[in-house]
Amino acid sequence: MRLALLLTLISLSSSAADRPDPFAWHGPVAPGLAVEIRGLNGDVHAEFSSGTEVEVYAQVSGADPVRVEVIHHNGGVTVCTVSQTDPKQCSQQAPAAADARINYTVRVPRGVGLIGRTVNGEVEAQNLQGDVNAETVNGKIQISTSGKAQARTVNGNIVATCSMKSAALSTINGSITLETASLTNAAFEAETRNGAIITDFRIAGHRGLSSRRIGGKNGNGSREIKLKTVNGSIQLRRLS
User: Fold this and answer.
1) Domain shared by 194 and 236, yes or no
2) H helical segments located in the chain
3) 81 within 8 A of 103, measured Cβ to Cβ
4) β-bridge partners, 174
5) Beta strand pairing status for 66-73 and 44-48?
6) Cα gap 93→143, rounded to integer Å
7) Confidence (pLDDT) at 112
8) 113 and 6 co-located in one domain
9) Quick one: which of 101, 110, 106, 105 has its CA closest to 129?
10) Same domain, 88 and 134
11) What are the Cα distances from residue 110, in Å, to 33, 124, 232?
């Protein structure tokens, strides 16, 4: 099935010794689809582009040889880091070289979503105009988008700005801050085990289940906002 979806494959062998230049790719991705960045060690930085094509740049460092693959499929495009010595192609099971670090920079046009995944690194998406899904294990996440915002990390803080769309933000060791213009038609839940919850909004149907767990619904509740951490505070701020 994956082979049937494979339209384009671009491979680049890179090492600190033989290729100091960054990897670069650009191409069209239709609005409503997404560009996925799948890394291991390194940051993912995304910014808005006024153009019509997605642009991806990857700066490679470290002694282990790696390749960057670009695969087109019916959901958009996936860019990933794969060990040069591993026969697997771009998949969740394909490991990147442990000693290699790749920092990705992505320029995303209007209406195109971003899926940014790494393990040891930060994910940042600034001023995007599409849905954002950001995941890391050790690193902070920053999101600013007019679309939906999803973020998940284990060790790191999350800061997100999402004007009038749904948001699902989760961390274990870190704080969460969400800025939004209003809670119109929002079903809201916030929970922390060791921390405080602070909100600028009055929440209709507010349920103060405890000092560390609150929820409620405004209007039809079609817009879901879920904020959850274990060790950290939660802030829901009004976006001016």
Assistant:
1) yes
2) 2-5
3) no
4) none
5) unpaired
6) 27
7) 98
8) yes
9) 110
10) yes
11) 11, 17, 33
187 and 143 within one domain = no
**136 and 220 within one domain:** no
- CA angle (213, 214, 219) in 5-degree steps: 155
Range of the domain at 40: 2-147
Domain count across the chain: 2
Residue 204, both tokens: 């209709």
Whether the predicted pLDDT of 89 surpasses 80? no
Tallying the residues shown for the chain, one arrives at 240
With beta carbons less than 8 A apart as the criterion, state whether 167 and 146 touch: no
Give the domain-ending residue among 128, 147, 166: 147
Does 197 lie in the same domain as 142?
A: no
Nearest to 137 by CA among 161, 117, 160: 117
Q: Is the dihedral of CA 39, 8, 33, 125 positive or negative?
A: positive
Angle (CA) 236 162 156, round 5°: 65
- Asked whether the predicted pLDDT for residue 31 surpasses 80, the reply is yes
**In Å, what is the CA distance from 101 to each residue of 58, 64, 67, 68, 135?**
10, 9, 12, 12, 17
| Residue-wise pLDDT tens digits, 52-76 | 999 999 998 876 677 788 999 999 9
